[in-house]
């Protein structure tokens, strides 16, 4: 399993927040190596191109759309570039960027993205009917579990980035 970060090959959170080993915030973030390592390890597992189930493009498009909905510009940039690198076309990325799923064709990917939107915006709507819609689109039960885990990870990642960005802004104040 290789690091799939197309930006620099280093820790994704450090990259998107702009943390360097010389900063106090970097030292704080890495004080518990187990946590920062597990975060990066989870990222690498979810976005391993060789992973079974959901395709790498599907996982990256879910991540990009979740980042758009969460208004995380740093993660949007990362996942947009990674999705493009793995074959997503400009029209699809533009539709997700505009939060306009009506521009996408019916099918499995659309079902994955609709479910993503539900879990990000209104988690209570991620109910049995939402799961049945995924099944009707041909998404297997193991892939539904992976999708839900991925979305939960992306929510954690978004909160972590937002918190670190806020701390970095405070650190920069005179």
- Residues in β-strands, percent: under 5%
Distance between the termini: 43 Å
Number of strands: 0
Q: Please indicate the count of domains.
A: 1
Report the average pLDDT across residues: 92
CATH C-level class: Mainly Alpha
Rg estimate, integer Å: 17 Å
* Pattern of helices and strands: HHHHHHHHH
Helix content: 55-70%
Give a written overview of the molecule.
This protein has about 170 residues and is mainly alpha-helical. It has a single domain (about 10-170), classed as AhpD-like, CATH 1.20.1290.10. Helix content is about 65%, strand content about 0%. The protein has 9 helices and no strands. Helix 4 packs parallel to helix 7. Mean pLDDT is about 90; it is low at about 1-10.
Descriptive tags:
mainly alpha; AhpD-like; 9 helices; disordered N terminus
Topology:
Elements: H1 12-17, H2 24-29, H3 33-46, H4 56-69, H5 73-85, H6 90-97, H7 108-121, H8 128-136, H9 141-172
Helix pairs in contact: 4-5, 4-7, 4-9, 7-8, 7-9
């Amino acid at each position: 399993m290789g690091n799939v970060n197309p930006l620099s090959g280093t820790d994704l959170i450090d990259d998107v927040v702009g943390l360097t080993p010389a900063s106090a915030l970097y030292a704080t973030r890495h004080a518990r190596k187990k946590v920062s390592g597990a975060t990066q390890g989870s990222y690498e597992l979810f976005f391993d191109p060789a992973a079974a189930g959901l395709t790498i493009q599907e996982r990256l498009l879910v991540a990009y759309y979740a980042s758009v909905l969460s208004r995380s510009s740093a993660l949007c940039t990362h996942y947009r570039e990674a999705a493009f690198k793995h074959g997503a076309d400009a029209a699809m990325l533009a539709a997700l960027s505009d939060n306009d799923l009506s521009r996408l064709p019916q099918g499995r990917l659309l079902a994955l993205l609709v479910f993503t939107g539900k879990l990000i915006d209104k988690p209570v709507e991620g109910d049995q009917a939402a799961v049945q819609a995924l099944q009707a689109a041909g998404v297997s039960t193991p892939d539904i579990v992976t999708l839900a885990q991925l979305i939960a990870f992306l929510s954690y990642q978004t909160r972590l980035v937002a918190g670190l960005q806020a701390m970095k802004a405070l650190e920069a104040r005179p």
